[in-house]
UniProtKB/TrEMBL annotation, chain A:
GO biological process: carbohydrate transport
Bilayer topology term: Peripheral membrane protein
PROSITE patterns in the record: ABC_TRANSPORTER_1, ABC_TRANSPORTER_2
Coiled-coil parts of chain: none
Identification of the protein by name: ABC transporter ATP-binding protein
Entry keyword annotation includes Magnesium: no
Species this protein is from: Phyllobacterium endophyticum
Similarity comment text for this entry: Belongs to the ABC transporter superfamily.
UniProtKB/TrEMBL annotation, chain B:
Organism in which the protein naturally occurs: Phyllobacterium endophyticum
Highest taxon of source: Bacteria
Ranges that cross the membrane: 28-47, 80-107, 119-139, 167-192, 213-232, 275-292
Family: Belongs to the binding-protein-dependent transport system permease family.
Organism taxonomic ancestry: Bacteria, Pseudomonadati, Pseudomonadota, Alphaproteobacteria, Hyphomicrobiales
Principal location class: membrane
Protein name: ABC transporter permease
Membrane topology: Multi-pass membrane protein
The ABC transmembrane type-1 domain, residue ranges: 85-291
Compartment(s) of residence: Cell membrane
Length: 358, 301
């Protein structure tokens, strides 16, 4: 197992900068999730670590050793791709054996069989072993491709959106399986996804990528409760954090839409009059008759365990999570308040959280 | 079933406004082709089958007499004909394996990001587009022992390529390889570029060496299309006539179609040559069938 470190990695493809001065530290045995939109540089990061691409600048260390001159084979990483990359025309067993049968490795036939069988048991694909790979369903293919990674006992697992091509139910099941697998193997995982639910539920640590820049790294808890800027606030959480523009005046938050909400300025920063953005999670907004904010119910989504209400305040929309029993009519006038402790302040111009700026 | 595959005619199309139905348009396109096929292919085929059982000679006015299987019996017992078949087999093996090695090798070299790849591919395809007769004539010059550029370039002095009975067949095969390797290359290139790049990456990550990757990933995936190239080239090589005929007149290069030509148009044994043509036809069909069976097996795997 291994510890991975990226130092000042920049990668350009022609004029396009895919990654900009990226520093990343993944501890041994950690489940690290890189979260970002399409084109944010997630896959590039994986390919750089795997040795399929060379960085324009910067260094990559695996277990403290600079691997710049190492090829993909020497780095001993496993890469699970979105498109599975199973070898066509072979059976599942042959696919699982492939990395072991390579003459470079020289594994005894008895051991190959034992390892393949063990992996098949772990991933519950024993009944598929003699089937051709093109007769498998998406979920089965993905299991085989994960199996092919595990069978080698690599130092690092790199996974490039392995679940995104699967249907929702299967994705959920495999998510749990992957997480269990990682804990059982104690392996270092770098998992790339654009799905913030996957990131939140699986990651020991999350790195948020935006346009080739690593914006924030931290535990899911830190990322969720203390986003470094409005980008992170808007990309993590479902629905994302509400961002309300306003100012602080006389110990109260004054929104640009006119309503005032109580606010305890815990920051030792002069914030009066400065244009700010208040970040508040939907679950920290309450609908209550005595609330200071006034809004109109715009839309109600029933999610079973809770309802997500879209409120209209003047021109803007904000969202609140309410208990499933709450009865709300569209266009109904409601009052709301927030949990002042949970409000995150962002500078309106730069979008940076004041907590992180100070 | 046929109607299910056919799309209906657009009611607003000019053809429909002229009162033409789907069926009429279909017939308009298909019937001339079928007629052409019948007149120039199927009729001669059947007619020559009839002649193959007679002693007909196209050079004389004597009526054709039915001789039963005599032509076939005599042909199959003729050691000279078997010698021709042996020469043909040797030629097919040398020429086709040469084309596969050169063609597939070139395709492997071209299947990467290199500058001017398109131009290079087009230039490499040129030999294939020339006429057989032209290729034969200028390779005859290239092979010339006294002023040919091949001997000059290889420093072989006055080496006899075409008049040396042991060398002549190889010389013809080399010309054929030069001309038709591009064909194998083109098909192989199509096959190679269809192998997804991520498979190679996966193999690299799985620490597979270049040979292992080639034999376990590249070759199995290219095999079906390569088989098609081999089928085409075998059939063509089996019935080679022009190249061998133009380049040399050595008895060691008398492939079966030259024998057939001589029998039909120099000796005027029309009936007998029809029988020989049928024997060749059956052989080509048999070989092709073996290939096709094998191709299906390769595809299934």
């Amino acid at each position: 197992m291994a510890h991975i470190e990226l130092k000042g990695i920049t990668k350009n493809f022609g004029d396009h900068t895919a990654l900009q001065n990226m520093n990343l530290d993944i501890a041994d045995g950690e489940f690290f999730v890189l979260l970002g939109q399409t084109g944010a540089g997630k896959t590039t990061t994986l390919r750089l670590i795997a040795g399929l691409e060379k960085p324009t600048a910067g260094q990559i260390f695996i277990d403290g050793r600079d691997v710049a001159s190492w090829g993909a084979a020497e780095r001993d990483v496993a890469l699970v791709l979105q498109q599975y990359s199973l070898y066509p025309r072979y059976t599942v067993r042959e696919n699982l054996e492939f990395p072991l049968k390579s003459p470079i490795r020289r594994v005894e036939p008895a051991e190959i069989k034992e390892r393949v069988d063990r992996v098949a048991r772990t991933l519950r694909i024993e009944h598929l072993l003699d089937r051709k790979t093109d007769r498998l369903s998406g979920g089965e293919m993905q299991r085989v491709s994960i199996g092919r990674a595990i069978v080698r006992k690599p130092r690092v697992f790199l996974m490039d959106e392995p679940l995104s091509a699967l249907d929702a139910k299967l994705r959920e099941a495999l998510r749990t399986e992957l997480k269990n697998l990682q804990m059982n193997l104690g392996a270092t995982f770098l998992f790339v996804t654009h799905d913030q639910i996957e990131a939140m539920s699986m990651g020991d640590k999350i790195g948020v990528l935006n346009n080739g820049n690593l914006v924030q790294t931290g535990t899911p808890h830190e990322i969720y409760n203390n986003p470094v800027n409005t980008f992170v606030a808007g990309s993590v959480g479902s629905p994302p954090m509400n961002l309300i523009d306003g100012t602080i005046a006389g110990g109260e938050a004054v929104s640009d839409d006119g309503y005032r909400l109580p606010f305890a300025n815990g920051h030792a920063i002069v914030t009066d009059g400065r244009p700010l953005t208040f970040g508040i999670r939907p679950e920290d907004l309450q609908l209550e008759s005595g609330g200071a904010g006034k809004a109109t119910v715009h839309d109600v989504e029933n999610h079973g365990v809770a309802k997500i209400v879209t409120l209209r305040t003047g021109e803007k929309f904000i969202r609140a999570t309410v208990p499933a029993q709450a009865v709300l009519r569209i266009e109904e006038k409601v009052r709301f308040s927030w949990n002042p402790e949970k409000v995150v302040l962002f500078d309106s111009r730069t979008g940076v959280s004041l907590r992180h700026a100070s | 079933m046929a109607t299910a595959v056919m799309t209906s005619l657009d009611t607003k199309s000019p053809a429909a406004s002229r009162g033409m139905s789907d069926i009429r348009i279909r017939n308009l396109f298909i019937i001339p082709t079928i007629l052409f096929l019948i007149v120039f292919n199927i009729f001669p085929l059947i007619y020559s089958l009839g002649y193959s059982f007679t002693d007909f000679r196209a050079s004389s006015n004597a009526p054709a007499n039915f001789v039963g299987l005599r032509n076939y019996r005599e042909l199959l017992n003729d050691p000279f004909i078997w010698a021709n078949f042996a020469i043909t087999a040797k030629y097919v093996i040398i020429s086709v394996s040469g084309q596969v090695i050169v063609g597939f090798g070139t395709a492997m070299l071209l299947n990467r990001d290199i500058p001017l790849k398109g131009l290079l591919t087009t230039l490499l395809l040129l030999p294939m587009m020339l006429s057989m007769a032209v290729v034969g004539l200028f390779w005859k010059l290239l092979y010339d022992p006294s002023f040919g550029i091949i001997n000059y370039a290889l420093g072989l002095g006055s080496f006899e390529w075409l008049s040396n009975p042991d060398m002549a067949l190889y010389a013809v095969a080399i010309t054929d390889i030069w001309m038709w390797s591009p064909f194998v290359m083109l098909l192989s290139l199509a096959g190679l570029s269809a192998v997804p790049k991520h498979l190679y990456e996966a193999a690299a990550i799985d620490r597979a060496g270049p040979f292992y990757t080639f034999f376990r990933i590249t070759l199995p995936l290219v095999a079906p299309i390569l088989m098609i190239a081999i089928i085409f080239r075998t059939m063509e090589a089996f019935k080679t006539f022009d190249l061998a005929y133009i380049l040399t007149s050595q008895p060691t290069t008398e492939v079966i179609s030259i024998r057939l030509y001589k029998m039909a148009f120099q000796e005027w044994q029309t009936g007998r040559s029809c029988a020989l043509a049928y024997i060749v036809l059956i052989m080509v069909l048999a070989i092709t069938n073996i290939y096709v069976k094998y191709l299906n097996k390769v595809k299934e795997r």
